[in-house]
Design a protein that fits this description.
Helix content: over 70%
CATH class: Mainly Alpha
CATH topology: Growth Hormone, Chain: A
Order of helices and strands: HHHHHHHHHHHHHHHH
Strand content: under 5%
Radius of gyration: 21 Å
Number of domains: 1
């Protein structure tokens, strides 16, 4: 992902086109994730993951071959990234639903923390290795290596034992019926509604900040691919710290309070990052962004997992996947805003919008609880 953004930044210098990379990756989730959730409750989940990774490997190989042949254009990068996005839309609900299916309920918070540790460790290795390779061995080496790294992934998924109750949805029923039942389950649960609303507004605003990271490294901090890799590395280190905090806290995590606090801290960190003119300070703030981002999404993910039943887990994770599908919409707005008012003010704008949206969700949730309590009292 970092290499693709860098290629487009190098060839076009257009923040909007750079921001289209995560749009193409996450956009399909907005439309296809729900069907991926139904699939995750009807089909063995590890089979979904194996097919998805084979599709991803084919995409990575295509990128590498086109680049080495000197034929790789911006539209091809975006098109191949969209295919990756379709694969992710179908596989992400299965990947997330597998976590709770492999451990006991009281172990879920620690399992989520450890999953976040592994994910963020990869974010440390990936951007750092990409920046080093681009600046020394070249883009082609990075693209070829990413293709071959899928092979051990396929081996591990193939050996993974399916958890008990891996298939829940009734296959005899139409897929649309399974989907409607899952949506009704989320819509009638007040906790899931609140988690979805809070996660959606943050994803639409603050989660888009990284889309402009290549532009920030190039135009604001006047660095090259090495600095881009360093900033990505810093964010990964921060995420790893946040993940270890989640894993260490285990079931003692106050999910609701920590989620809201992390959202406000994340907005503050993005604003500081936007106005920082010094590379060392920007790297430090990027670590803080990684910590607060991970604290927010890990607690949101954990609360989703603990608030649903195994029967609907794949479909609930799919609804959460639609939430992530909002990120490309926000990234498009961020890219367009950066073209109009500049990168700094665009980042400050999305951070401020995120804070206002979180406050609004909290107010609406409080008003709903008060209204419900009042109705119950009057009926009594």
């Amino acid at each position: 992902m970092l290499t693709r953004g860098w290629l487009i930044q190098r060839d076009t210098g257009a923040p909007f086109l750079v921001a289209l990379v995560p749009v193409m990756m996450m956009g399909p989730s907005l439309f296809l994730s729900l069907f991926g959730g139904v699939l995750a409750d009807r089909v063995q989940r590890k089979r979904i993951m194996v097919v998805s990774e084979i599709a991803n490997m084919a995409c990575y190989a295509a990128l590498a071959l086109l680049f080495l042949a000197g034929e790789l254009a911006t539209w091809q990068i975006l098109g191949i990234t969209m295919i990756n996005g379709v694969s992710t839309a179908f596989s992400m609900p299965a990947r997330q639903a597998m976590v709770a299916g492999l451990v006991k309920r009281h172990e879920v918070p620690v399992a989520i923390g450890m999953q976040a540790v592994v994910f963020n460790f990869s974010q440390i290795i990936g951007p750092g290795l990409a920046g080093l390779m681009i600046s020394t061995a070249g883009v082609g080496t990075a693209l070829v290596l990413s293709t071959f790294l899928i092979l051990p992934v396929l081996f591990l998924y193939a050996r993974l034992q399916a958890g008990p109750g891996d298939v829940h949805a009734r296959r005899a029923e139409p897929i649309i019926r399974n989907l409607v039942v899952g949506l009704r389950y989320v819509a009638t649960d007040p906790t899931l509604r609140w988690l979805l609303a809070l996660g959606s507004v943050v994803t639409l605003t603050m989660a888009t900040w990284q889309a402009l990271l290549p532009t920030i490294a190039d135009e604001i901090l006047h660095g090259g691919a090495g600095l881009l890799g360093t900033l990505g590395l810093a964010g990964g280190i921060g995420g790893l710290v946040g993940a270890f905090l989640i894993a260490g806290a285990g079931s003692r995590i106050p999910y609701v309070k920590l989620e809201v606090i992390a959202a406000f801290a994340w907005a503050a960190a993005i604003s500081l990052f936007a106005i920082s003119p010094i590379v060392a300070i920007s790297i430090t703030i990027a670590i803080a962004i990684g910590i607060t981002r991970e604290l927010f999404f890990a607690t949101n993910f954990g609360a989703f997992q603990l608030s649903t039943t195994d029967e609907f887990r794949g479909r609930v994770m799919a609804v959460r996947g639609v939430m992530f599908g909002l990120q490309p919409v926000g990234a498009l707005v961020l890219g367009a805003l950066a073209e109009l008012v500049g990168v700094r003010w665009a980042l400050i704008g999305v951070a401020g919008a995120g804070v206002i949206a979180v406050i609004a969700v909290q107010f609406l949730a409080y008003s709903s609880r008060v209204a419900t309590s009042g109705t119950s009292a009057s009926q009594s």
